[in-house]
Every structure is written in structure tokens, then in C-alpha cells.
Specification:
The structure is a single chain. This protein is α+β, with helices and mostly antiparallel strands and 238 residues long. The chain has 9 helices and 11 strands. Strands 1-8-3-6 form a 4-stranded antiparallel beta sheet. Strands 2-7-4-5 form a 4-stranded antiparallel beta sheet. The chain has a 3-stranded antiparallel beta sheet with strand order 9-11-10. A hairpin with a 5-residue loop joins strand 4 and strand 5.
């Protein structure tokens, strides 16, 4: 990837958008950065590995995953072109990755050293403000993620997912942009557990689905929640 392409991708990110040409050049010059290329399925960072750079996704996508004692894979978040990885850990006293980061597809990443981020923060007030905003937004996102998966049955997780996608796509019949396996990983459950609950919901006439789409026969989220109360939540957590 050329210097010009790196510069354009930096400019496209809100954090770096207002930097001067000289500041951008400083980031991608000398030994303050390196470009890493990763094949699909390769591990970028293992759990408990020290975070020493802030990483800008130049192409591809990566996922942050955790595996619990039961072998369930939880996909906490996904990063794609233009996103930043590791910035929330870079200046933390606990600067080790709490989960494993894996390339979901072939990916190219710009790794920026801690020193360059610190230098920009000290010299550029706007950069510092955008940095603080980014860190705050990430904190809110992770809090919402925890609320989503904590204490909810599999059925509740499915219904929340459907409510959001139906709203976004404007239809009770939605196109699935992820596989059932990826959806199970987002929920932190086994693929078989998800399939079992989907089948139960289809038998009860609540939904219909195929590999590429899913349709709900329940008119709104309030009705979904009312239906859910009839069932014992623990019944669907196996």
C-alpha cells in the first residue's frame, strides 16, 4: 500500500481528519509505524498479550473473541476498514489484550507506536479531544454489549437481534448479513444451542428462516417480550 493510500485512510478517520499534512507525514515516516499483513484466520494478538501500538485497519476485518470454560465463543466486536484497535489499552495500566483478536478476512493494518499518539495528543488539542471522545464512545459500546448478553435467555437475544434488524431494514423479513455461526458467537453460545432455539421458535410460529433470511410473525418487540414472559428463561439457556 502506497504512502498516499495510507494518508487517505488516515484522513478518512475522524481521529486523524484534522491533522495537518506535516502531522500526517510524521505518523507514516521513520520508525514510528509499520504495516502488517494478516491472512484470514491468523491471530493478531493473543489474550494477555501486551498492547504496544494503536492499529488502524487499512483493509479487511478482524474480530475480538473470547472462549469460556464451556467452549462457547463470544464475538465481542468486529473491526473493519477505517476502525482503530488497541487505543483504549495503549495508555492503560492494564495494557494487555483481555481477549484474542483474529483476522476474519485477509487484512492490512497500520501499527502506530504509543509515542506518536502521545506526541500528537500533547501538540494538537483537537486530536486530544477526538481521542477522548473515541475512548468514551468505546466505553459506552462495551457497556451496552455487556447489558445485551448478561442475564438474557437465548430467545431474548434472538428477539433483540430481530427487533434491531427489522427496524434497520424496514421489514419483518430481514436479510442475514452474518452466518448462524457468527450470530452464535456474538451471543456467546454454542451454534447448536442457537439452532435448537430457532427451531423451537419456528415450531411455535414466531419466526421462519433460511440460510440467507429470517422473518418474524410477531408484530413488534413488545409482543415479543410478552411472549417471552410465558416461557421460563432458564429453559432456553442450555
Amino acid at each position: 500500500m502506497s504512502i498516499k493510500e495510507c494518508t487517505n485512510l488516515l484522513r478518512a478517520n475522524p481521529l486523524f481528519r484534522n491533522l495537518s499534512d506535516e502531522e500526517i507525514k510524521h505518523i507514516i515516516s521513520g520508525n514510528s509505524y509499520r504495516i502488517g499483513k494478516y491472512k484470514k484466520g491468523s491471530v493478531l494478538y493473543f489474550q494477555n498479550e501486551k498492547c504496544s501500538t494503536s492499529d488502524l485497519m487499512l483493509s479487511g476485518s478482524v474480530v475480538v473473541q473470547s472462549i469460556n470454560d464451556d467452549g462457547n465463543v463470544l464475538t465481542v466486536s468486529e473491526f473493519s476498514k477505517g476502525d482503530i484497535i488497541g487505543l483504549n489499552l495503549l495508555f492503560s495500566q492494564k495494557d494487555h489484550y483481555p481477549m484474542t483478536i483474529i483476522a476474519k478476512s485477509d487484512s492490512t493494518i497500520l501499527h502506530m507506536k504509543k509515542e506518536i499518539i502521545l506526541e500528537l495528543s500533547m501538540k494538537n488539542k483537537n486530536f486530544l479531544l477526538m481521542l477522548l471522545q473515541y475512548l468514551s464512545d468505546r466505553s459506552v459500546f462495551l457497556t451496552d454489549k455487556i447489558k445485551l448478553i448478561s442475564g438474557k435467555s437465548i430467545r431474548q437475544l434472538i428477539l433483540d437481534f430481530l427487533a434491531f434488524e427489522c427496524h434497520v431494514q424496514g421489514s419483518n423479513r430481514i436479510k442475514l448479513t452474518i452466518t448462524k455461526k457468527e450470530l452464535a458467537e456474538r451471543f456467546g453460545i454454542q451454534r447448536t444451542s442457537l439452532s435448537r432455539e430457532l427451531q423451537k421458535m419456528r415450531e411455535e410460529g414466531m419466526i421462519d428462516y433460511d440460510r440467507d433470511w429470517m422473518e418474524t410473525n410477531v408484530p413488534n418487540k413488545r409482543a415479543w417480550e410478552s411472549s417471552e414472559k410465558v416461557e421460563c428463561a432458564s429453559k432456553y439457556t442450555s
